[in-house]
Amino acid sequence: MPVGIFRVCLVVITAIVNHPLLFPKENGTIPENAEEIIQKMKEREESLRLEQLRLEQEIADQEATQKALEKPAEVVQESKEEKVRWDMWTALSMVIFLLIELWRQDFQEGNWQDTGGEEDDMAVLGKVFKGVAFPDKAVLASFYEKRILGTTGDMARMREMVEGFADDLLEALRSVCNRDADMEVEDCMGVGSMYENWRVRKPFVCDLIVPFAPPEPYCFRTQTWCSGNSFPPDEQGYGTIKVCRADEDVTGCICDKTKLGEDMLCLLHSQANTTRPSSEMEDLLCFKNTQYLDADQVMKWFQIAVTKAWNRISHKYEFDLSFSLLDSPGALKIKFRSGKSIAFNLTPVVQYENSDVYFISHFPRRGLAADLPSSTHWFLTFTVYERRFIQLVSKTLPANACHVSCLQILSFLHGKQCSLTGPSGLTNYHLKTVMLHLLQARPSQDWAPENLEARLQDMLKFLEKCLHEKKLYHFFIGNGKVPAELGFPIIFQRAEPLNLFRPFVLRRDVYRKTVDTFHEMLRNMLALINEYTVHIPLAHTNGIRKESL
């Protein structure tokens, strides 16, 4: 529209400028060709008039087109308004759906302890694995008798030998350490599968933990992720250890928690008390320029102390001692002159308050698990309470209960599969956690020896469900049903449940590898068991059937 008006104005201006009356007559003499000029001017005037009419017609056409477009624009505007209203309702519906989904997940987490006791839940699991060949009772019994039971005596002899040598080594370690400056080492304790009698795969490795404490007048102040302070999600299950003087009240003054200005001074603590030389804290195995115990410093100290202790007593033994892993503080290997060897782990730990929960610095066998957040973060181990819980529950189970047998068979199958296809994110600790959940969820009579087949299927179904949901909760943390007889710290019972499968959410490659390994183990289960099974009469071979796990 503005362009059309501009063009009309341009034509009018041109006509005025070119009109003959605009030019003044300089003389009254009419040229000889005046008539010819007048004729040309008339023709020019006529052409301009026609051009003006054409432009006016174009303007009229544009105005008609504009009016025609305004009506559809109103329709489009109305449709946009309707779309906006529709989008608003869609967004509101999505928000309501998300709130319902979050509530459902919170409700499931609040009732996570009841999952194993629901028969209906167990019945709908395992649909993905229909058609998997599952051995019957006779095949499992034969396999267990030949492959598992024969190792029990070997484990007992090995435990006795390793414990005796470890006690002698630690006694020598105390003698070479400076009692006034070095850490104080206590007696070792056996933990893990070797001491819970379910380890099946060779080589057998004894796991021993060694509590230690700082020299006087220092002490350890421990802090966990559930102690009230905020910890990032990747540090759940960890804690820190602060080295303080025994007479220092770290909770009574805020000067250690708040950054004071340069012109401010704490009236309770002098500068000499709050600041210690860096060399002194490093001698106490702290991280540089901090008061927090450094796991790497502890590892170096412990390896040097063990080496000195062995040099003192090596003349008493007819074998050699060496470190099998340099990135673990006490991964040791005894090598006899005959060529045989025995491996065991001697790991320094720090006791959490007055409980049997311990901060552990390193795990010799971590598979595809993530590393520690930092060297000042220590993982908490509940292995002492796990052993006590198994012993406590075993007293209520039928004679020769099958709970340990199920765990041993499952551990054997998974280990064999990993030796074929490589390591996965699934560990023996995960399998043990599955057993602990089912031990608490199922009645005692369900673990009778004749129910070995059914309980093994239950463990596989429960594990499948956890892998599908990427959720396997720590047995003790957040479990309000822990028996009071164990004396388990209440702070961990009241904590939020800790998902052991959280790394699968963050690392999809590890999750895919783990699921593929689990599926492959199910497909190869019958072949792996038959490989180690003695001959079974023909009457029992028909017992190998297709089961829906």
TrEMBL record:
Residues 38-65 form a coiled coil. One of its GO terms (molecular function) is protein kinase inhibitor activity. GO terms for cellular component: nuclear outer membrane; plasma membrane. It holds the Pfam family Mab-21_C. Residues 1-15 form the signal peptide. The keyword Nucleus applies. CDD domains: UDM1_RNF168_RNF169-like (cd22249). Enhances Ca(2+)-mediated inhibition of inositol 1,4,5-triphosphate receptor (ITPR) Ca(2+) release. This is Inositol 1,4,5-trisphosphate receptor-interacting protein. The lineage of its organism: Eukaryota, Metazoa, Chordata, Craniata, Vertebrata. The gene is Itprip.
